[in-house]
Write a structure and sequence with these properties.
The protein is an alpha/beta fold and 229 residues long. The chain is 47% helix and 16% strand. It has helices spanning 9-13, 27-37, 51-66, 78-89, 125-133, 150-169, 181-194, 197-200, 212-228; strands at 3-5, 39-43, 70-73, 94-98, 107-109, 116-120, 138-141, 176-179, 203-206. A 9-stranded mixed sheet has the order 1-5-6-4-3-2-7-8-9, sandwiched between helices. The chain is globular.
Length: 229
């Protein structure tokens, strides 16, 4: 099968997902999210989930697929595996970014909607992070991450990207959405103490995954307004 460069312009222009069922119930809003957000990175634990959580994260994946978003994940186990399964079930796109040895760096097979696509970006952790962050329009952090794990590292990378790059070049930062009470208790004060309002003003602590879509719509509209200035 033909291979093309990771996130090439050619691929982006032909990126089509089939959102026959749109969770928002408003075609105009859903299409705006698809057009302006485009891709969304989801971070979560590799730990095996209980049956209730499995269904919840699969449903989230289905909703993201229905919005036409390409979902980017950093692995294939635990909660992010469940999200990916939901995306695939609703014929959406999933990009799995992995660090690996002995694979073709920077290339991936052509994506087929409804199938997982493995992307082997670079043989180093920094390469994995570039794949997860550089082309996403929003970040979701699912419950279950522990201190010192990849989830925490990914979360801090998202915040540092806003602090060290976005605000200095005048770019509208992508929202960082934390799902679950654990994150609010553990990190809200830390984030406010470490970063200024230009960073934590784009951080959201929510109790339910059902609150994600309104945030995405808010940022899609902000991006549209910025483009019209």
């Amino acid at each position: 099968m033909e291979k093309e460069q990771f996130f090439s312009d050619k691929q982006e222009s032909g990126e089509i997902v089939s959102p026959q069922k749109i969770s928002t119930g408003n075609d105009k809003n859903a299409l705006l999210i698809k057009e302006k957000i485009k891709r969304i990175s989801v971070f979560g634990t590799f730990d095996k989930q209980n049956p209730e959580a499995v269904e919840k994260w699969k449903e989230l994946g289905k909703e993201l697929a229905d919005l036409g978003l390409t979902v980017i994940v950093g692995g294939d186990k635990g909660s992010i595996e469940n999200v990916s399964s939901g995306v695939v079930e609703n014929e959406g796109k999933v990009i799995v970014v992995k660090t690996t040895v002995g694979k073709e760096a920077g290339f991936a097979t052509e994506n087929i909607p409804g199938h997982l696509r493995g992307v082997y970006y670079e043989d180093e952790q920094a390469g994995k992070f570039r794949g997860l962050f550089n082309r996403s329009g929003a970040y979701i952090v699912l419950p279950g991450g522990k201190k010192g794990t990849g989830t925490e590292t990914e979360m801090r990378f998202a915040l540092d990207k806003i602090d060290s790059f976005d605000k200095h070049v005048g770019k509208l930062p992508n929202p960082v959405i934390f799902v679950g009470e654990h994150w609010k208790k553990e990190y809200e004060e830390q984030i406010k103490n470490k970063y200024d309002q230009n960073v934590w003003g784009h951080v959201y602590f929510i109790e339910s995954e059902k609150e994600i879509e309104p945030i995405l719509l808010k940022y899609a509209k902000l991006k549209q307004e910025n483009e019209q200035k």
